[in-house]
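Hi C.,

You asked whether I'd gotten around to modeling the 312-residue construct. I have! Everything is below, sequence then structure, no commentary in between.
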Amino acid sequence: MAKRRGQPVHGWINLDKPLGISSARAVGIVRRVFNAAKAGHGGTLDPLASGILPIALGEATKTVSYAMDGRKSYQFTLKWGAETTTDDAEGDIVTTSDTRPNVDEITAILPQFTGLIDQVPPIFSAIKIDGARAYDLARKADGGAGGPVPELAARPIMIESLSLVTADAQSACFKVECGKGAYIRALARDIGRALGSAAHVIDLRRLSVGPFHIDNAISLDFLESLTHSSAAFEHLHPVVSALDDIPALPISEDEASRFRHGQTLPAISASAQTRFAALLSGDVAIALRDNVPVALVSIQRGEVRPVRVFNI
């Protein structure tokens, strides 16, 4: 049997990803710094984007979906005058415009991009169409390998806030806070169209993902300088860091043992009803034994059932 590589390291790194590298490469570097057996990330950032990339190590990978579902914020700059195939500076120009909106015109259209709106994702995105990624289909069409350019349907997204930071004749900078599934490149494209111009993103920086913020992020260069050093662990956040919005449920050692073995607990006793009163059927909570995460649990059919068990 092959020996498993790496050590059982558990927790989150709040990484400030630099420009020019993929999210996968950043994960690989962080994994090497900690010699961790397992790693993943909470939300991809393109090589042309920088900022918050939460990286999960070990058992924290079981909470990645909760980080990805969290609210995100970005600062982005769009350039007027051209729309591209990728909606950023990497793509080929497909539409041009001489229109250059002023500050008042830009500010006036921002309310139509705030709240619950419909957005068509970029064709160069990871959305699946009949089992294939949209960006793979788009590349084949763009490279002449055959097949149509993918057509993506509009879908609802939540834009919590959108504000103009600076603007000049050639570009405009914005801050946006949004929910899951929003594409900033598509937002820039649609802002350009709404103003009778054409636009694409030339700078994109993610400022937050759920509880992970740029204010307390660590740079990749600094983290690499701590490779195989105990000092690196000073920057490792707890496994439960991505679970700030999930109720905590203190449990006994006996209950912890049952969850670890995949067993359920009755939620109908008087004491249980008091402890579980805040949970509705189907809600997820984090079960803790002496502040150590034991399992993600939910109430189903009158029982508390483990959804994901942590091996810590």
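If it helps when you're writing up: Residues 23-34 form the longest helix (12 residues).

Thanks,
B.
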